[in-house]
Structures are given as C-alpha cells and as structure tokens.
Amino acid sequence: MPSSDVLKSLKTRRAIELTKSLVRAPSINPPGNEKVASDVVSAFLDDVGIKYVEQSVSGDRCNVIATLKGRTGYPSLLLTGHLDVVPPGDERLWLKDPFNGEEVDGQIYGRGSTDAKGCLGAMLCTIEAVAESGVELYGDLVFAAVVGEETDGMGIKHLVREFGLRPDMALVGEPTQLMVGNAHKGIARFRIDVGGKAAHASLPDNGINAISGMTKVILGLDDLATKLRSKGVEAPPTLVVTTIAGGIKDNVVPPNCTITVDRRLALGEDPEGAGHEIIRVVRAALDGRSMRADVETYLSAQPSRTSPDEMIVQCSTDAVREVLDKEVGLYNFEAYCDMGPLVDLAGTKAVILGPGSLAGSHVANEVVAIKEVENAAKIYSLVVTNALIKRS
Q1: Which listed residue, 95, 205, 285, 360, has the most CB atoms within 10 A of its CB?
Q2: Which residues have a Cβ under 8 Å from the Cβ of 302 and sit 6 or more positions away?
Q3: 345 and 204 Cβ atoms separated by less than 8 Å
C-alpha cells in the first residue's frame, strides 16, 4: 500500500527537532522578524535535498516554497503554515526563556510552539518523507512557510497574487487539537475616536472629557458582546475592546480618546453589518453629549467554510481517524487564519488542522505536546496519501 511507503519514511522525531529549532528562532511580528525562522526552513530543505524558492514579500521577509511535482491533470495540494509569532509580552510571566525551545514533561516550551511552529515542523517532516519514499504523486504537492499571518496575512496573499499559486486543496496549519476545521470565523477590527474639549483640570466644567465619554461607549460595547455570545449558534460571534489611549497630560481635561475593537464574525455575518452595530452603540452612548465620534474599519475579512463533501475534508477526516483511532467531527475554528485568503483569492478548498489548542496560543508559557506534533506528522502524511497517491 502506498501509504505504508510514506509512513515508513516518516521520521517523527525530526518533526520535534524542527519545531524546537523554529521556536528558538524569535520570528516576532510585529515588527516582522521572520527571516530567522525562514532560514531554519531553508537550511532543512537544503539538508534533505528538496529544491525551494524564497519569495520576497517585504525586504528580507520571505515565503519559502517547495514543490514536489506530480502528474499533470490532477488536483494539487498545499501544506502551509506561518513563520511569525506574536510577541512574548511580559517575560516575567514566563517560567523560562520564551525562545528556548526546551522539552519539558513531554512538551515543547516556548513562544510559537503551538501557534504554529509545531505545524511547520510536522509539515517539513512530511515533505521529507514523501520525497524519500519515491511514491508517484497524482497532482503537485506544495509546501509553503509564509510570513505575516499574525497581522494581515500578507504572506499568503502575496503567494496567491504575486507568485500565482492556485492550489485545488490546502491544509492550513493552525492549533486545532488535531481536529479538522472546515470553517473559520471572519474578522472586523475597528478604531473608535471620541473627541471632546481640552481645559485646565482644575476647571473641568470648561472642558469635555473624551475619556468619560468613551467609558459609556465601552459599557455599550460590553453589552453588545454579551448579546453576541448568547446567540444560539456553534462558534458564536465575539467582540472585545483590545486597546485604549487618551489624554494629553495629567493636568488637562482629555480632549481625545481612542480604542480598538476586535469583532469575530460567525458564518452568515459580514463586516459591514458588524460595523453598523458598532456605530449604533457609539451613537446611543454619546447621545446628548457634545462630543464627536468616528468609527473606522481598518481590517476586515469574511468567514469561510469548505463543504464536508469536498475531497480535502474527507481525506483529512480519514487521516485523523486512522492515526487517532477514533471518530472525529468537523470543527469551526474560532479565529481567522490563512484559510481565508486561499478561499477568497484562489478559490481553494481548504481545511485547518494542527497540534496544540487556540486557548494555548498567545499566552505566557506556551507549549505544545510532543505526541500531538508526532501525530500531526502522521496525519499530514496520510492526507497527502489520501489526496495525491493512487492506491492499488
């Protein structure tokens, strides 16, 4: 059976060592220091003799793309994961150096271990196994390590728009606890500015306090967030105020205040509708107050869904079932990820699948279980087998 040839060539320990090496490369975004991690990917591909292309996205921020050619006339498959990680935040909250990549009690420790360098380690291990097995592929297998996922998806967008990649199927590496995500939420981010009037702090009635006005807005947004969470749908929409800034000096009535709002869109919602909800809240909160308010949408993307009947979904669920020896359902990924641009810009049928959990991402003392990374490598190998290798 062809699958046994790929699995026989699979070195799951290699996936662990690659993940640790990637964690030790502090590819923090912002500002976008992915080169230290893309160099790890390139060095590995050089070591195993797989040709690749480094695609400059911005300066030295490069996507790394490797293609194992298959027969023409068959669907292609992309395995993709992102190189960048969020900043570690307050390092006093970490028990160890967030970029040490140490093995601790069956886990790999460090920023990016879960989101999403465990995925990249498992994918690289898979590409090596497929190449070494010598099996014939029915359709191209493409691997892409991309930049900029943690901000605006610039890497995957560049891959589609400038590199011209249009894969028929894609597996996007994100922490799903090895569940198959065939859908994800959309996203809308808003900047809200409230303007008041400056005055000496000893004469507050001569001014208009923008911070006080913004507190009313925030309370209204909190009420909206509660209503959104109570909607009786799987993976309900969410809203959270994420940053705040205001005032000019500690003895001046603040004439300005700005917040940013992160709104996640459930299937069936759109950014425009979410924006109208925000505007209504702002207007109601400031009704009767002599304040100006502006609401700007500075980032938005629709939710995505791939039908359970599509080949990539079936290949993935079959692979998870075979490796984990249990029946698995489909999963609606709570966050937005690079599946979105692939679906929207390339028309790709995609799933999200990887080790680790979203709850364990973007937090101090991030870890990923070694067993999950090893199982991810096996699952990815079987997805390739199911999708691209003809069975006798």
Answers
A1: 285
A2: 186, 265, 270, 271, 340, 344
A3: no
Tokens representing residue 279 in the block:
């505007």
Helix, strand, coil % in the chain, rounded to nearest 5 = 40, 25, 35
Answer CATH for 186-301 from 3.40.50.300, 3.90.320.10, 3.40.50.10800, 3.30.70.360? 3.30.70.360
pLDDT of residue 98: 98
Per domain, the residue ranges of the chain are 2-184+303-388, 186-301
Place of tokens 């699952």: 379
pLDDT (tens digit, 9 = 90+) per residue, 271-289?
999 999 999 999 999 999 9
Query: Alpha-carbon distance 248 to 264, whole Å?
Result: 32
| 219 vs 166: CA distance, rounded Å | 45
Please, are residues 118 and 372 in contact by the beta-carbon 8 Å criterion?
yes
pLDDT tens, residue by residue, 130-156: 999 999 999 999 999 999 999 999 999
The correct CATH number of 2-184+303-388 out of 3.40.630.10, 3.40.309.10, 3.40.390.30, 2.130.10.10 is: 3.40.630.10
Q: Is the dihedral of CA 130, 44, 112, 374 positive or negative?
A: positive
Spatial CB neighbours of 220, under 8 Å, sequence gap ≥ 6: 281, 282, 284, 285
Bridge partner residues of 62 (DSSP) = 56
Residues 6+ apart with CB under 8 A from 316: 171, 180, 351, 353, 379, 383
The order of strands in the sheet holding 256-265 is 238-246, 256-265, 186-195, 292-301
Of 25, 97, 15, 108, whose CA–CA distance to 367 is shortest?
108
Q: Mean pLDDT of all residues in the chain? A: 96
What does the pLDDT look like over 158-196, one tens digit per residue? Answer: 999 999 999 999 999 999 999 999 999 999 999 999 999
Amino acid, single-letter form, for residue 155? G
* Residue 328 scores a pLDDT above 90: no
> If you search the block for the tokens 């011209």, which residue do you land on?
164
Q: Whole-model pTM?
A: 0.92
